[in-house]
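Closing statement on the iron/sulfur cluster sub-project.
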Amino acid sequence: MNTFETGPIRPPSEAGSYLIRLTRGCPWNKCKFCRSYRKRSFEIRDIAEVEADIDAMARIRDEIKSGGPVHDQYGWMVKNALSSGGTTAFLQDGDSLAMKPDAVRHILGHFKERFPEVTRITSYARSRTMSTRSVDDLVSYRELGLTRIHIGMESGHDPLLEIVKKGVTADGHIRGGKRVVEAGIELSEYIMPGLGGREFTEGHAVDSARVLNEIGPDFIRFRTICLGSKLPLWEEFSSGKLTRLTDIEIVKEIRTFIEALDVDGVKIASDHILNLLGELDGRLPEDKDRLLGIIDTFLSLPKYDRELFQVARRAGMLEKLSDLDHPRIRTKAKEILEEIYRHYGKDGVDEAMQEMMERFI
Ligand code: SF4
């Protein structure tokens, strides 16, 4: 049968990739800010099942490439990957490399046989799982085509990691991350601005930078926290244990973080709609001053313009600060901002922004 199983999530950078599901859910599933796999228990799929999926994908690819029609959702998924070049794949779900190393090798080997044209295979993994794999195992994955691992580090600040139940310490992040780097696999680490509220903002920024300086990843990506009452973490904020940061405070936290970063060659990316400043994109050390300059430009805007930018960004109307100079965007943003003032009052923009962000999740 030409069908295959896919999981619910992949990084934005894998939007055009073949999705190969090795596992279902997350073996940890306790992080208080994450609802991705809440409703399901973790399962490792059979090797034969995954290989049958890969075979089905290969048959569909061959049909499409020889001019055949796209029949169904499976066809559209393969066509989507082909339209993006057909050279990238992503292993799902949340911690796919929790699978036994021999099984991972089997699957990677099978995929390589069926899709020799794929040059980039990536996967999510937990730092803790990576720290339990030998460098030799990881090297063997790389030799079979695994090129990049995405780790949700979120923070390098131990008291905060404890509160959000990340299930790993700063040292654990360092051990797991370094092992990936040592194996020669590209490492992409995700940081969650705003995670610890006002109480942890300084420690979160400084320790996250310190841990990343030790690991030396290839990419650092921001995923701003999006708090909502359905998150288990909400309890910490609604009880007053943590105080939610405003957009401006989150931008200041990111500034402290970038200033403390000292990783040669790392690429910083702000490629998620939840991040206010989507243009924080560059390489260290050469772009550090430019990135800090973008932040300072935003922070020095008059309050009204800052609010216009917040509104326009959350409404999906712009990405860069300079986009605000566009008359059409500015006029539309003004209309929305006036509406917000009417409903929430002149000091209610942050409240309105939080509601807009919650709609994204
Ligand atoms: S390890 Fe990742 S997928 Fe699992 S619960 Fe935490 S954030 Fe979610």
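Residues 26, 28-31, 34, 36-37, 94, 126, 152 surround iron/sulfur cluster (CB under 6 Å). With this model delivered, the sub-project is considered complete and its resources will be redirected to Aim 3.
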